[in-house]
Amino acid sequence: MSMENIMPDIDIDRDKSIDLLLASIALEELALAHIVNSEAEKIQFVLGTLHDDEDHDKPTLDELLDINQSVERMLRKVIMKEMLLSFKLEDVVALLEKQDDEHEEDDD
User: Fold this and answer.
1) Neighbour tally for 45: CB within 10 Å
2) By the number of CB atoms within 10 A of the CB, which of 39, 63, 101, 106 ranks highest?
3) What is the pTM of this model?
């Protein structure tokens, strides 16, 4: 029994695929920036500095330590993702350099 082809017929060239890879890196970087911002707002909320709310109770030491640990865990994940994106970008740059080298050889 043969396997069905579920892939759509996508016809893109090398330049377009590199553009798509760069766009995917940029979008992931934007998402990570939003995560970092939300973690900062989380800390501001706990400290009562996010809004001018005078009725905000002061956090206890245990609450501050809990929020700090939560933010630290999230930022560790962001850092890991940043490292992966850095590797991905290095691979795309290598593709571009290889493509430039091939074009130079064709011109000779």
Assistant:
1) 15
2) 39
3) 0.78
